Write the structure tokens for this entry.
Amino acid sequence: MLPPFLLSNDAIRPGEPTFAAEEGAEVQFLGAVRGIEDGATIAGIEYSAYLPMAEQMLAELLTRGEAEFGTHRVFIQHRLGFVAAEEPSILIRVQTKHSAAAFDICRWYLKEIKTSVPIWKKPCRLPGTSH
């Protein structure tokens, strides 16, 4: 069984859904690095995190998600290190009874990760570009 979250340099490989008896929906969100950041072409993004704090905050986020939305399963993977443009940097999978709830829960996790988990990004410019 997979842990509920993973922060690593490993590439993101979306998997096939497996449903429990009470589940009828899975929403899978993939967020990719855009090739343009602040109007400039970039090679990718270097992601870093303070792992002890980021992992603690993700665990707390999962507890809050369960309290707020009830029973559901979630798996979150966020890349660390260099992620090239057009490659996924985050995967969120939510499985629950109904599709509307799965979308809402997935959106909530994404917002919370972006605003509260200490994962930092540094755009990496293409060689020879100054902007």
